[in-house]
Specification:
About 35% of the residues lie in helices and about 25% in strands. With about 230 residues, it is of the alpha/beta class. The strands form two sheets. The protein has a five-stranded parallel beta sheet, with helices on both faces.
């Protein structure tokens, strides 16, 4: 009998957000795959989960690493996959492993938990249901065209951004503000962590704030953009 592949959501910052089911799953599986084994090993140590084989499956994973995991599943071993933080398969390489496992008939079991997208939306105060989640924009090629296409839509847009390009993104949004159409941006920084900060404003207001408070342009950002 083939093993099962468990897709395990992990905390996005606060370790206390892990679910009981996630802990139990990590305890019972034979093998754990992780985007960053160092991050996962810290989590395992915190919850006293020992003697587990932990393999790296990240954006640099080649076909050989994926096959190694598939062979373990085919041999009857249960495998858990976790990303660095949040729900695997959303802006991380977990989707590749899931797709390959499904091709060979592996049963895939979601172990739900924290997602930065849902966490950010829960504090944005936006009642409209439709939204587009894009994740990280390209660093260079196609970035401006994709941003224009996203902003042509009427519903909210959710983006991830690194601190290195955060102010650049705000400037790009400000450039696209036109007469009669204003943009409201909810900036969620370091969600669930010690320095969590949630700020709402027009692109120009946020540029002014973060230019004056450069010490806050660090950590992980989730931006929700809507037309008002």
């Amino acid at each position: 009998m083939k093993g099962k592949l468990y897709i395990v959501a992990t905390p996005i910052g606060n370790a206390g957000d892990i679910t009981l089911r996630a802990i139990e799953t990590l305890k019972i599986v034979d093998v754990i795959c992780a985007e960053d084994t160092r991050v996962t090993k810290k989590l395992l140590s915190m919850y006293k989960i020992e003697d587990k084989k932990v393999y790296a499956v990240n954006e640099f994973a080649d076909a050989g690493k994926i096959k190694h995991v598939l062979d373990a599943l085919d041999g009857g071993k249960d495998v858990a996959f976790s990303s660095d933080a949040g729900t695997p398969g959303i802006s991380d390489p977990g989707a590749l492993l899931v797709a390959e496992a499904r091709k060979v008939g592996i049963t895939i079991v979601p172990i739900p938990g924290v997602s930065a997208v849902a966490t950010a939306m829960s504090v944005a105060g936006i009642r409209e249901t439709p939204f587009t989640f894009y994740g990280f924009l390209p660093h260079k090629k196609g970035r401006q065209k994709i941003l224009d296409t996203l902003l042509a839509q009427e519903h909210s847009i959710i983006l991830y951004e690194s601190p290195h390009r955060f102010l650049k993104l705000l400037a790009e949004l400000q450039e696209r503000v036109v007469a009669g159409v204003q943009l409201e941006v909810t900036v969620c920084r370091e969600l669930t962590k010690m320095y969590e900060d949630i700020r709402v404003g027009a692109p120009a207001e946020l540029i002014e704030y973060y230019t004056d408070h450069g010490d806050q342009v660090r950590g992980e950002f989730v931006l929700i953009i809507r037309k008002i």
